[in-house]
Amino acid sequence: MLKLKPTVLHHLLQRFSPYTAAPGGYEHILAAFHQYQSFSSTQRRGGKWFPVPPFTHAINGSALGSELARGGGGASASKAAASETTAIKWVLKCCPELPRSLVQKLFRLRQVRRGSADGGSSDLGAQGQAPQLKRVAAKDLLNLGDQIFLPISVQELPSEKQECHCCEEEVNFVRSLELYKDPAIIVVNKPSGMPVQGGVGIKRSLDELAATCLSYDYSEPPRLVHRLDRDCSGILVMGRTQLSATVLHSIFREKTVDASKCEINNKKRILQRRYWALVIGSPRRTKGLVAAPLGKVVLDNGKSDRITVVDCAQMMSSQHAVTEYRVIQSSSHGYTWLELSPLTGRKHQLRVHCAEVLGTPIVGDYKYGWQVHRKWKQFPFSDLKNSNEDLCKEKTLPFGIDMERGSVSEKHPRLHLHCKQIILPNVSQALQNLLASSDYDLSELPSIELVAPMPPYMQRSWDILKS
């Protein structure tokens, strides 16, 4: 009798869970696994294979995201529901724990097999009959019911990323940042000072923490679909699966493409992002549209760089950048609260447009408003002593996060830029409805409105300037 390692058996049953509920499903999976274990078309590891779940109805996430960004409806909805999937895409989707480089190598070395739904592998329960597996190329399209088989040695590989270990206090803190969660997305209110991605000198990043603390019962970690600067706070949306992340990526990308084509006026905006910023000075107009291309300038022999407005877009590589703004509230002390809506998603777009186009750098932006901050003076807050005493009593948060200090009452204020609101299509409902029927009218899909409260130091600045 075949003896299976508990981890291998659990992995198999988890991947084939839809089939185990059927009569005799458990026995069929064990029988199939036994036959594929004994199959000997190659000499590698005794000819043992690891089965990937059969190819089922798939949704083209990129096409769906593009259609949602355009408002839904039309023939594109059917196209999104009936996508063609290659062998390598299906393996990467079903086995997110495998490094992409390894999967590519297995296909390149011709070590991947396919059992077609209408071939000899369909009768998996027949004892003593080996399935007829054939080599499959990475870009070969799959038919419904086709099954991919990888060398069993992939089971012994370590995870591509080292697991990030967190104590209970750290897990609770990360989960306290949650604003919204459904089967497709998870949304957090990112604190200022927490990097979104890892890099040189970064010990803990939000994407690593999300994989540890926000995966819950999902086999895949949440995936980033857009970015926030390290010192920026506010709404950060992540896809809970590879498919939902692909849809969201496409929605954010289409927003930038449409704005780059100047398709701005008289068009319903499916994706809306609104930031609040406290700036030094006041714009000439209470509302307006900034359309200024941005380019990167390398400084210090390549050691650093900065983004700047490009006067002549033909003389250097540049990116079209568009920002809407309106004044929320002005202060007699020379500060203004602005609502900023980026219609394109460029690096440091809001910070550069505020500093170089509007002439009103954001408070705490020492990169693009350094000249103004050289003359910075603490705000003459009458109750400053009591305020600072309260700050000293605040409890230290995990990961060195401090959400209290940094208001205009302090010598070195923090960046006052906060992603306060995002409106986007209900991706979870779109996926559920398309799986049920490819004729679903995406134009009827409702939106989700996400709102994140300002961090305490920005709220403190708001209260001070109103007093």
Give the tags:
467 residues, four-stranded antiparallel beta sheet, ten-stranded mixed beta sheet, Pseudouridine synthase
Outline:
With 467 residues, the chain is of the alpha+beta class.
Structural write-up:
The protein is built from 15 helices and 16 strands. It has 467 residues and is α+β, with helices and mostly antiparallel strands. Among the domains are: 151 residues, no CATH class; 164 residues, 2-Layer Sandwich (Pseudouridine synthase), CATH 3.30.2350. The strands form 3 sheets. Strands 5, 6, 7, 8, 9, 10, 13, 14, 15 and 16 form a 10-stranded mixed sheet that branches. Strands 1-4-2-3 form a 4-stranded antiparallel sheet. Strands 11-12 form a two-stranded antiparallel ribbon. The N terminus is likely disordered. It comes from Cephalotus follicularis (Albany pitcher plant). Pfam families: PseudoU_synth_2. Its main location: mitochondrion.
Class from helix and strand fractions: alpha+beta
Second rung of CATH, namely the architecture of the domain at 272-421 and 453-466: 2-Layer Sandwich
Average pLDDT taken over every residue: 81
Could you say what the CATH topology of the domain at 272-421 and 453-466 is called?
Pseudouridine synthase
The top level CATH class name of the domain at 272-421 and 453-466? Alpha Beta
Tell me the strand percentage band: 15-25%
Helix content: 25-40%
Rounded radius of gyration (Å): 27 Å
Unreliable sequence segments: 1-46, 120-130
For the largest beta-sheet, the strand count, sense and barrel status come to: 10 strands, mixed
What's the overall geometry? elongated
**Total number of strands:** 16
Family: Belongs to the pseudouridine synthase RluA family.
GO molecular function: pseudouridine synthase activity; RNA binding
Main location: mitochondrion
Subcellular location: Mitochondrion
